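ok posting inputs for the NAP job
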Amino acid sequence: MSEYALYVGGEWMTTENLLPVTNPATGETIAHVSQAGVNETRLAIESASHAFVIWSAMPARERAQLLNKVADEIRVRVDYLGEILTAEQGKPLREAKAEIMMSADYFEWNAEEAKRIYGQTIPASSNSKRLLAIRQPVGVVAAITPWNFPASMIARKVSPALAAGCTVVIKPASSTPLSALEMGRVFDAVGLPKGVVNIVVGPAGPIADEILSNPRVRKVSFTGSTEVGQRLMVGAAQDLKKISLELGGHAPFIVMADADLDFAVQGVIASKYRNAGQTCICANRLYVEDAIYDEFANRLAAKIRALTVGLGTDPTVDVGPMIDEGALNKVSRQVDDSVARGGVVLTGGKPLSVAGAERGWFYAPTLVANVPHDALVAREETFGPLLGMWKFSTDEEVIAWANDTPYGLAAYFYGRDMGRIVRMYEKLEYGIIGVNDPVPTVVQAPFGGVKHSGFGREGGHQGLDDYLDWKFVSIGL
Ligand code: NAP
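and the output
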C-alpha cells in the first residue's frame, strides 16, 4: 500500500487525517493520502502567491522550457502513470495511457503558446500620446478537477495557467488524487520553482471555502458537475474572482440516412462506451433517421453485445468499472425508469459480476429504445454505459429534440450531405460539434460548453485567455 503526502510550497507535507483511495474494479484500498483542511489550503495559497512574484517575472522562453520538460517527463513515465490512473479510476490501461500522453501534449502545446502572448499597439487620437495594451497573468489560480479524467483535466488547466505566468493550487477529486500527486512528483523532478504548483487533497467543503474567501486567489477554474459549478460561481462572486466552468453534458448523437452505417456504429461505440460512458462529452441520446433505424439498431446492438467488460488491466477489456456505487445506481435508476415508461432494453440493462473482481462496480453496456422524451435518460446526464435511442423523420424535429436540454457541451452528427452538415452544425446549441467524428477533443482546439455546460475554453490559443488580464497603457509624450 502506498502513502502519499500533500504538495505544498515545493515540499511533501503529511497530516494525521488519511484518505483511503479505492480501486473501483476490485474494491481494494490501494493508497492512503494525507488530507488538507483550511490551514493547509491557506498555506498552499500563500506559497502560490509568493511563487507568483518569481514565476510571472520569468521570461516566457524559460517558462516554456520548463513546461516542455514536464511534457517530456510525463512521456517517460507513461507506463507507470497509466497504471496508477487505471488503478484509481478503472478505465482500460490503453485509455489511461492515451490520457497521460494527451496530458503531456497539453504541456507541450502551452509551452509553445507561452511564447506568443502578444499585446497590441493602438493608434492614438493625437501625436502627443502612444497607446498600448499588454497581457499579464491574473495571479494565483485554484484548479478544481473531477475524477473521470484525473490527469488530463489537471494538465488542461495547469499548463495554460503556468504558460500565462500564473501559479496554481490544485484540488483534485477525492476518489482519484493519485494521478494529481504523481503529477506533483513530475513538477518536482523537472525543478519547477517551489510553490508554483501546489496540490491539496481533502474534503471539498473547507478547501473550497478557503479558496473562495482568500483574496490572493484571483481565478477559479472548475471542471465537474453543473450543481457544484453553480455553487462556486455564487461563492466567487463575493470576491469578484474570475471563474471558468467546464460542466456536465447531455450530448445528442444524430445519424442521417446517408451516413456510412458501420462507420457511424463505430462512432457511437467510441463516443458512448469509452471510459464506461463517464465522459462529459459522451453521447447520451441517439437519434437515427427512420429509413435506417431498424438496420442501425441491429448493427449497433450487436457491436455493444461484443464489448468486453472487466478489469482495466486486462488488455482484452473494452469497458471498465464505474467509479462507485452511486454512479452505478444512477444508471440502474435510468434503466428502470425507461422500462417503466415502456422502453425496450435492446442489450445490457443490468449490473455485471466480473470473475475475480466481484466487488467492482460493473454495469453492462446498455441500449434502450422506445423511451418517451421525458424519461430520465432523455433529461439527466447519465455518466455511465447507457444510451437511449429515438427515431426521427425531419431535420427540424431532430434539431428541436437535440437542443431541448439545459446542457450545451458536445453534439455529434453523422451524414454525408454537405448542406445538411452545415445547417446542423450551425443550429445545434453546443460548444463542440463532432461531424463524423466521435472523439473531437484535441489540444489545439477550444474545448468548452454553452448554457448549463458552463463557459470558458480550454485548449487552443483560447485556452490561455482565462489566465490573462489586459492592461491598457496610455503614454503622454
Ligand atoms: P463533482 O462532484 O462536481 O466534483 C468535481 C470536483 O469538485 C471534485 O474535485 C470535488 O471534490 C469538487 N467538489 C465537490 N463538491 C464541491 C463543493 N461544494 N465546492 C467545491 N468543490 C466541490 O463532479 P464529478 O462527479 O467529480 O465529475 C463528474 C462531472 O464532471 C460530470 O457532470 C461531468 O460531465 C463533468 N465533467 C465536465 C467536463 C467538461 O470539460 N465540461 C469534463 C469532465 C467532467 P470531491 O471529489 O472531494 O468531492
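notes: The mean pLDDT is 98. The chain has 14 helices and 23 strands.
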